[in-house]
Amino acid sequence: MAEKPRIKVAKEAKKGEVIEIKTLLAHPMESGLRKDDAGALVPRKIINRFTCEFNGTLAFSCELEPAIAANPYFQFTVRVEESGTFRFTWIDDDGTAITADESITVS
Amino acid sequence: MRAAALAATLVAVIAAGLGVCPSRIWAQSAAPVPLATDGDASARPWHRYHEWPQRDSVKFNTLATLASPPPPTAPRKLAGPIAGDPALGAKLAADRTRGGSCLACHVMGPAGGADLPGNVGPDLSEIGNARLDDETLFNFIHDARVYNPDTLMPPWGTHAIFNDEEIGHLVAFLKTLKAPAQFKSELDDPAKRPPPVEKRDNLDSMLNPAMWAVDDKAPALWTEAGPNGAACASCHRDVPQAFKTWAATMPRWEPRLGKVLGIEEFVTRHARATTGHAWPIESAENGALAVYLRFLANGSTIVVDNESAPAKAAYERGEALAQRKVGQLNFACVDCHGAGRGAGKWIRGQWLGQIRGALDHYPTWRTSLQATWDVRKRFQWCQVAVWANELPPDAKEYGDLELYLAAQSNGLKLNVPGIRH
């Protein structure tokens, strides 16, 4: 069973404020370079892209590579000008997308 | 305390009134907690974790059996001077497949590039100036117990890690060591290298994935009905209050089992007797509950009973086990972690902690492995690391050892789950 992503983001902020966002996703980040007991390569299966959209506009994104350790953790800052919803998306090599939403009230 | 006990009794009476639990469980504190005393609490036969080294060390001591060859009674006599090759010796001294290499414990001048040597053993950088004869050097490596019965040095020859010819190359190499080590930085010098300090907030689940057991996994298991139709929550209400101190009193002697019972084995046997869940030690469910139950007692002072008669006997057995030399490398717990021995020193780049405080943060998150380890798995790894066969996690010897080690932390406060390398 997949773990739910863990996200830390303020529920409220002032207009124009720079806020910090932290996300953590449980994922093995299988590099594709390891061998199993029989000596065969374990196929690569990593999160290859992470995005954070705010009200439909891309706010932050990055590409991930096989050398990145299990359970990828991101910490970044965004400036918020209006109330709305963050959508976080993790794209797996197998094509699945893990998403989570967090809303914020800006005054 | 009295109010808490009263509240717990009240909860139990209410639960019993609902007809979910046998009334004897908590209505009287004197009534023993239900435990399945039959069968084992972990897999039999025990198979080592597949990602661990699979070396079989059956010819050497474990915590349960004595098998190691006896030490020689006198130094070996050599027919003449040793004709070894110093270059081959240098290679062997740095060979990490032979018990971690000499540099794991000794500074050896420029050998190995003076790259992160340890300091459990003496600095050998200038041993070549000591004018020791070949026979003495040979015997120190072959089995140093002929000179010092309390030595920490593995008996490389007696335990067949190096053969006579290889020891000859090592002797030739040692005789070439005549200049102090030049370290590239203070980090390379074990005498100056600062001990690691863990400062992260171990109860922040963004930093410590072992906390996920507390956030999600254990609470979900708590309300999950087992084959008998009951869940943990059927009997245990007001959980934070009811378990505020319990974990800080574990492990404890259990007369019905005739062994020391740790929290992990308690979870297995209590669930088997009540809800019917199969939660063997080292299963994901057992691990999550073991973290959670200790987390609930965080901040409580560790007060393990090592004074009542059977507990005292178990403690003394545990103390003896902590001093037993095990494995092909022939190390006892106290060799690495005892004050005045290895504690506070370095094996290569790994710092050896002391015994007091070693258990107060278990189960702990291992950042190097991205996994939560309970204390029994830690015991197992210590043994595999010294080339000894491990025991099943519910072995009675581990119970005695856990009681001894936990009692060394009496007076400290529980802080689970920890974060360690």
Account of the 3D structure:
The complex is a heterodimer of chains A (107) and B (421). Chain A is elongated and about 60 Å long. Helix content of chain A is 0%, strand content 51%. In chain A, strand 7 and strand 8 form a beta hairpin. With 421 residues, chain B is mainly alpha-helical. In chain B, the strands form 3 sheets. In chain B, strands 6-5-7 form a 3-stranded mixed β-sheet. In chain B, helix 2 packs across helix 4, helix 3 packs across helix 4 and helix 8 packs across helix 9. The radius of gyration of chain B is 25 Å and the shape is elongated. The N terminus of chain B is likely disordered. Classes of the chains: A mainly beta (107), B mainly alpha (421). Chains A and B meet through loops of A and loops of B.
The CATH topology of chain A is given as Immunoglobulin-like
Strand content of chain B: under 5%
CATH class of chain A: Mainly Beta
Number of domains of chain A: 1
Q: Low-confidence parts of chain A, pLDDT < 50 over ≥5 residues?
A: none
Radius of gyration of chain A over all CA atoms, rounded? 16 Å
Q: Determine the most extensive contact between two protein chains.
A: A-B, 12 and 7 residues
What can be said about the biggest beta sheet of chain A?
A: 5 strands, mixed
Low-confidence stretches of chain B: 1-20, 23-28
CATH class of the largest domain in chain B: Mainly Alpha
CATH architecture of the largest domain in chain B: Orthogonal Bundle
Helix content of chain B: 25-40%
- Supply the helix-strand structural class of chain A: mainly beta
Number of strands of chain B: 7
